[in-house]
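Supplementary Data S3. Sequence and structure tokens for construct A.
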Amino acid sequence: MLNVEIIHFPLLAEELTQEYGIPEDISVKITTTYLKLFRKCPDNVIHTLDVWRITLWSRALGEKYSYLAKKIYERWLCLRYYYLALSSDIVSMLHQLRLKYLLGLITNGPSNAQWEKIRKLSLEQYFDIILVSGDLPWEKPKREIFRKAYRFLNVKPDSCVMVGDKLETDILGGIEAGLGCTIWIPTLDKPPLLRGDPQPDFTIRHVTDLLSILNRSPDAPELEDSSSNASDGS
């Protein structure tokens, strides 16, 4: 799995240089600064998402280039969702999984920002439950957020599979919640699994490899089909 920020921020830095004549080193600094600001505070309770992000771009661009903030924000948003969009093979996999399993999505982050992502990517059609930590008193890896998901789906925790790319939230949370199986999909920039890390049951290179584990691996947990209230709780 590739971290989309690895792709679209360098592309945006190139555009700042090519289209607006901003020196290359300054363009890289601008995009890096925005990413840090965005990660530190992706949402603001006072402002709309658009206004807040334009404010962050204005800060990152500095006084000399702040007049570009709205244009750069719009371009960043376009690139962000272009690279976040589900590929056809992932959409196909989700359709296949829904024929047999209940699917859940648990995501950490501020409510407005996460629901924007969910809706722009049309994710609601694929999942039986979606939980955003910003709407709740807990976030991953707290076991309560996993418990809320499997109780809503009316399934037992040991019939659930947790699939995620973050060891410290997804995999640790799945283990501590007593889920039947955890599957890690490391991003390409993630260092190798260390002995002290939460240990997933499986590590796969791409999310579509999940099908081979659920369908053929003798070590995968026995999951009933959805007619028996089973869950693939990702």
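Construct B, processed identically:
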Amino acid sequence: MVPPAQAEAPAFDTRDHAMMRLAMDQALNASLHGEVPVGAVLVKDGQVIATGYNHPVGSHDPSAHAEMRALRMAAEQLGNYRVGASTLYVTLEPCMMCLGAILHARVTRVVFGAHDPKTGVCGSVLNLPAHGQLNHQTQVEGGLLAEECGRLLQDFFAQRRAQRRAARDALRAQQDELARWAATLPAEAALGELRLEGGGLDS
């Protein structure tokens, strides 16, 4: 996951690092559920008010990304979908859907870890936060613990590829064994006919 060129790297403090590590813990929860490991933490007034991890497969919900789940939890906690002044930490660059929800929730700052060259809209595929026409502006800073966040994804997909290879190898071995067994059937059938015609080889 190669980050796009940036004019100036953002300055992150120790609290930013601590919050991103909490988001990484959430990403591990996603991995334990067989989901792509992405995690999010929402901080308001210096307190963590919501967390979320990727869970679209298990919940049968295409919108159940880590950011969306954290925003839903925060809205329930606050009794208002407009979260307001807050920082959302997420291990992967938000997609278009998630950024739209972030803007509607009036989150003031987003900090993400790894860049997403396929669906990221905060500088990778698109840079939507830079559009001045939007009715709400959110400060977006990327690249915090990017290597570690990216490694969570790399390890997950490497393990999944290994599992698929193992499943294919097991199926191939089963098919080979079945083919070897099937190849013995004509000889055994002929021997059975000989036994019947001769009244048995031992008679």
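Strands lie at 39-44, 47-53, 87-92, 109-114, 139-142. Residues 14-156 form a domain with the Cytidine Deaminase; domain 2 fold (CATH 3.40.140.10).
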